[in-house]
């Protein structure tokens, strides 16, 4: 009986953690094959170098915001947009449960450097990415949430400067079971309840056989 209770408890724990985060991808092709659709891609190539007029810039369905009240967004020559100060947190908002981007880290003089970038999603996912060196300054990172709800992304480069060359978003399949649809949150609960019910039926069946 204790084993069955443990199994039931494990099912409940799964329900509580299944929606906490999803799957991270460092290979663009692999990430792309898991998408059912791409909603849009912001490439920032048309932006002039220098400061943007406000702390928010929107392109192709992607809204990029500098969450510091004191500073704006900064465009490095060549169309790479990022934080104006190293302590600034950048937030990407979009309509989808998946994103993929080419990210970079730079020093105060706009030189690309080897430095970690910290990512956190609104559904609880976190990732620390070590950016590549200046011979190939952009590193791809993608993510697909475990549920269908739209997510957002926070990016921080402190003590360095975080930036992005391009950013795509869309809707992805379930990363735990590639090729299948992402279950709705209610489906996880239903599956757990079904599992507990089956355990109860098994207990009753064994008791009837003994009697």
Descriptive keywords:
211 residues; alpha+beta; Jelly Rolls; 3 helices; 14 strands; globular
Give your account of this protein's structure.
The structure is a single chain. With 211 residues, the protein is an alpha+beta fold. The chain has one domain (23-183): Sandwich (Jelly Rolls), CATH 2.60.120.260. The chain has three helices and 14 strands. The chain has helices at residues 2-18, 28-33, 185-210; strands at residues 23-25, 35-42, 50-51, 56-59, 62-66, 73-76, 80-83, 89-93, 98-106, 116-121, 126-130, 139-144, 152-156, 161-172. Strands 1, 2, 3, 6, 7, 9, 12 and 14 form an eight-stranded antiparallel beta sheet that branches. Strands 4-5-8-13-10-11 form a six-stranded antiparallel beta sheet, with no helix packed on it. Helix 1 (2-18) packs antiparallel against helix 3 (185-210). It is globular and about 40 Å long. The chain starts with a helix and ends with a helix. The model is unreliable at 1-20 and 178-210 (pLDDT under 50).
């Amino acid at each position: 009986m204790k084993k069955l209770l443990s199994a039931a408890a494990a099912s409940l724990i799964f329900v509580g953690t299944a929606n906490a985060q999803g799957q991270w991808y460092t290979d663009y092709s692999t990430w792309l094959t898991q998408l059912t659709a791409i909603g849009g891609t912001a490439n920032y190539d048309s932006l002039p170098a220098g400061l943007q007029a406000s702390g928010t810039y929107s392109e192709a369905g992607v809204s990029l915001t500098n969450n510091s009240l004191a500073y704006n967004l900064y465009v490095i020559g060549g169309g790479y947009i990022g934080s104006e100060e190293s302590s600034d947190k950048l937030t990407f908002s979009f309509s989808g449960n998946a994103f993929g981007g080419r990210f970079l880290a730079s020093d105060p003089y706009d030189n690309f450097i080897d430095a970690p970038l910290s990512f956190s999603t609104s559904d609880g996912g976190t990732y620390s990415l070590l950016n590549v060196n200046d011979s190939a300054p952009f590193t791809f990172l993608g993510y697909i949430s475990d549920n269908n709800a739209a997510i957002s992304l926070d990016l921080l480069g402190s003590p360095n400067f975080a930036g992005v060359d391009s950013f795509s978003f869309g809707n992805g399949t379930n990363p735990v079971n590639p090729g299948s649809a992402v279950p709705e949150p209610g489906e996880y609960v239903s599956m757990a309840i079904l599992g507990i019910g089956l355990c109860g039926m098994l207990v009753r069946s064994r008791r009837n056989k003994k009697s």
